Each structure stands twice: as structure tokens, then as C-alpha cells.
Amino acid sequence: MPDPIAALTFAPAPGYLDAATCGLPTSATADAMRAAVDDWQAGRADLAVYDDAVDRSRRAYARLVGVGPQDVAIGSQTSALVGLVAASLPDGAEVLTVTDDFTSVVFPFLAHTDRGVTVRHVPLAELADAIRPRTALVAFSLVQSRDGAVADADAIVRAAAAVGALTLCDVTQAGWMPVDAGRFDITVCSAYKWLCAPRGVAFLTVARPALAQLRPLHAGWYAGDDRWGSCYGPHMRLADDARRLDVSPAWLCWVGAAPALEAWAGADAHAVRDHAVGLADALLSRIGLAPRGSAIVSLPDPDERLAGALRAAGCRVAGRAGGVRLGFHAWNDRDDVERAGGALVGVRAA
Q: What value, to the nearest 5°, has the Cα angle with vertex 53 and ends 48 and 176?
């Protein structure tokens, strides 16, 4: 196990190269969820324990992305959190998105075209230059799901600030690299991929000036200033910070999320990036291609021959948009590079 992730332990999974689709649970996550299910079955479930898991997860995620816990809201899925932002836009607003970005970052805005919301799509490399004075919000993934391309966040943030546009950045596929959520007005993240939490755990961060612009569509008892004092109406007093945007949590998911997020928050994010990117670039070198500086490797595979060879060699990979996608993460090592590289070289030589 590499030093950067000494606090994380995983069950052996040779050839698992699919963190971009679904992460592996840490041993601590699996143990915590088994214990929670046993307690639930035995009638020992304790809601205070569940609430503590949510609070631990919020604090750990805040530390991981460089913001305060008061700037973090919890949710279940990226699309639901982006949908909250989309519903808060005024009629006629223009949203700028990336061509072929993951649809959870795009569809929620397209759902509002009936009230005049305009959605423009441009290639990732052109995003900063395409921001114009009438642009209200720029929505993009920091790392593209289909091919691992990394956005020029500095240029995008500068261009958006110059015209007063909000930035919404999906950092779901950026869990292998250092992330500073404070650079953006809003970020969203599904934690079940690179952060190894159960599916059903997601986060939104929001800068204080942007918080006032977001309508708390999911307002319920969990978003109340006093959670357990907000179970019954008719009077509503929501939390003053980002917690006002909380979605009531699926508790068992958060029991599993807390230990994983705490471990990632304690790891050296730069070293994790170097480890994952080093393996991805080593694979590219093994098959005669130039390094790309991303933990995600995407290769054209219209006939799925590459994917078939990789799977036959014991690799878990994904097919995306006419290509095969491999994601290297903390649990991977040089054996995985050789396993995948040998399979790919064999097909390319045939």
C-alpha cells in the first residue's frame, strides 16, 4: 500500500480499474455498515449515531476540499443538487456548459428551458473564452467523465468573475487530485466514486454570497436551524448556513461514508494524485502514447475489442462514448499497469 494512503485499507481487487464508475469501499466502511445493519436488525439502531455520522462526513469533506463545514450541504445525488441551483436561476438566464459533459451537470438546466433559461454548449477547451456578459452561470466538471480531461479552472474562474457569472463545478471525477472548492461559487460531488463512500452520499459547497441566491427546495426537518425541533409545522426556521440546503440523509449510507471521508481527508492529496497519475501515464507509455496527466485513461474502442481484451485479462473497465475508460486510484499498483498494458499491446499488435 503506498504511503499516501496508509490510513486506508482495501480488500484485494487485482485489475480493478473502474474508480470513475464506482469506488471500492475501505475496510472501515464495510465494517461500519455491517455493524450498522446488525444493530438495525437487532433493534439497536440509534438515530444519534446516524446524525453523528453525517456530521463527521460533513466535517471531513469540508477539510478535504478546503472549506468550512458551514459551507457544506449534504444530499444524495449530484443531479438533485444541480437541480436546486437550476431552479434558483431567474427566468431567461443563460447557462454555459461543456459539450458532452456528464448529463447531471446539464439536464437540470435544460429542464428549465420552458421559462426561458438558455443553455449553451461549447468544447471544454473553449469554455473560458465563451463566457460573455449575459452569462449568468457556468456549469462544468473539473474532470470530464468520458475521458478524464481536466478543465482550466483558473481561466474559467477569471472569465466568469469578469462578467459577474456564477461558477458551478462538479468535482465528482476529481477525487484523485487536490481540490479547492473555495475557488468556485458552488461545487457538487457524488462521493461513491473516487471517495469510496456508499452511493447516496453527495455534497454541495457554496460561497456565502451565492448562498442567498439559492432557494432551499428540499427544506425539511433536517435543514432546520434546530433539527429535532423542526419535525412539525407550521413555523419554519432554517439553518443560517449551507445546512439550510440539506436533504434528509439515507442514514446507513452516511455510516459508511464517515470513515472513508475521514481517511481521505487525512491523506496527502498531492501524493495520491502523483500515485494515480503516475500509474495512468505509465500505462500510456507502455502502449506507446504520450502522458496526459490524468488518473483517467480513455482510448477509442468503437468495436469494443480493447474492452474485451482487458476484461479477458482480468481488468474491470468501463465503456464510454465509443471508448474504453480506465481509472487508476489508490489501491492500484504496477501489476495493474502490466495487466492492462499487456492486454492492450496484444490487441494493438494483432
A: 175
Intervals of CATH 3.90.1150.10 along the chain: 3-25+268-349
Give the C-alpha separation, 50 to 40, whole Å.
11
Q: Report yes or no: 173 and 327 within 8 Å, Cβ to Cβ.
A: no
Ranges assigned E (strand) in the chain: 72-75, 94-98, 118-122, 135-141, 166-170, 186-190, 202-206, 296-300, 318-320, 323-327
Query: Is residue 127 a contact partner of residue 140, using CB atoms and an 8 Å limit?
Result: yes
2 pLDDT band, cuts 50/70/90, is very low
Residues 6+ apart with CB under 8 A from 88: 213, 214, 215
HEC sequence for 263-327: HHHHCCHHHHHHHHHHHHHHHHHHCCCCCCCCCEEEEECCCCHHHHHHHHCCCECEEECCEEEEE
CA distance 160 to 182: 15
Q: Which CATH architecture has domain 46-266?
A: 3-Layer(aba) Sandwich (3.40)
**Of how many residues is the chain composed?**
350
pTM: 0.95
The CATH 3.40.640.10 domain(s) of the chain lie at: 46-266
User: CA 166: distance to chain centroid?
Assistant: 19
Q: Per the structure block, which three cell numbers stand in for 241? A: 448556513
pLDDT, tens digit (0-9, with 9 covering 90-100), for 108-164: 999 999 999 999 999 999 999 999 999 999 999 999 999 999 999 999 999 999 999
Architecture of domain 3-25+268-349: Alpha-Beta Complex (3.90)
| E strand or H helix that includes residue 335 | helix 334-349
Distance, C-alpha 62 to centroid of its chain: 14
Residues 289, 131: Cα–Cα separation, whole Å: 33
Q: Rounded to a whole number, what is the distance in angstroms from the first to the last CA of the chain?
A: 35
